[in-house]
Amino acid sequence: MSELTGKLDELRGRFDAALTAASDDRALEEARIAYLGRSGEVTLLRRSIGQLPAGERPGAGKIINDVVEAMEAALEEARTRLQLRAFDEDLAQRIDVTFPSVAPMRGSIHPIRRVLEDICTFFERHGFAVVVGPEIEPDYYNFDALNIPPEHPAREGFDSFYITDTLLLRPHTSPMQVRTMQQHRPPVAIIAPGRCYRRDAVDARHSFMFHQCEGLLVGEQVHFGHLKGMLTGMCRALFGPDQSVRFRPSYFPFTEPSAEVDTTCPTCHNIGGPCRMCGGSGWIELGGAGMVHPNVLHEMNYDPDVYSGWAFGFGLERMAIVRYDIDDIRRFFENDPDFLAQFA
Ligand code: FA5
Prior knowledge:
- This protein is an alpha+beta fold.
- The protein has helices spanning 2-21, 25-36, 41-47, 57-94, 111-125, 139-142, 154-158, 175-183, 224-239, 294-299, 316-324, 337-341; strands at residues 129-130, 136-138, 167-169, 188-197, 209-219, 245-252, 255-264, 283-292, 308-315.
- The protein has two domains: 2-94, no CATH class; 111-343, BirA Bifunctional Protein, domain 2, CATH 3.30.930.
- Residues 172, 174, 198, 200, 206-207, 210, 212, 252, 255, 258, 285-290, 311-313, 315, 317-318 line the site of adenosine-5'-[phenylalaninyl-phosphate].
């Protein structure tokens, strides 16, 4: 039996050497035939078992079977190794690893986001906190608490997409005035940026979804001059010192007095004539503003005889249109890479 084991060890050593030396499938096949084929060395050895004494034959058969199994596994492993090597060589021929790689596309901050962040930075520098609120609001926050009762005609202009009879996508960020005053006692100084929704027909400066930034300051002896100074300062910070800003008397149920804030049209530069951006007026409206109405302060349990405040709501798309000289609001939402790449 030990003679058989010695022979098998010697034979296995030669077989392994042949596999290691093999450089292609043909060499492997030759090794297989020489050792495991019909007339191969191992096969002949197996046949010779018949000459052993009957008691030794089963043991010898098992030893040979184990060795054959191990040799077949080694053969399979050698085949896989050769295949991988061939694959690597093929790849190295097809790929020029010295070729310069394709530069990854650079992303950029969306222009609306840039404007939003710059407004936040401006107000944070002046001690305002940034707050965010829900885009779906009950009509109490959208209207009633803002001095717009159910039959008030101003509701029509703000009416939006209703989800239930009393829940709607907010048409402006002004509900954040109410939420802030409900939660904090004066003084309060916040800005609240976010998305808004309205049933507006889409054109160069209107979208059914847009962004606003609300601002609210309430304290003692707060007056319209503070509002004018802050909004003019914000416009200067965003547009530079040469951009004209005007305050036009207006009406909002939740502010008194109220104003609309305009700036010169970036498309026609206020030279008049037909203009699809400003309709020929030479001005583009950025937002609304005013002194918080005493009824609103009262509803929030702020004493209007002690406290006064101002608020504003600016459209971020309009700010970006002016800042980057954009000809149509729709460009902000089309996700055109060529358009967005300009802001990289
Ligand atoms: C308001 O939404 C008031 N809540 C603003 C306000 C806040 C007044 C606090 C007083 C005190 P208005 O409807 O005018 O007001 O909208 C304000 C700005 O949002 C507009 O000037 C414009 O810049 C932007 N805006 C309004 N509707 C659209 C729209 N459909 N598409 C794009 N921007 C819009």
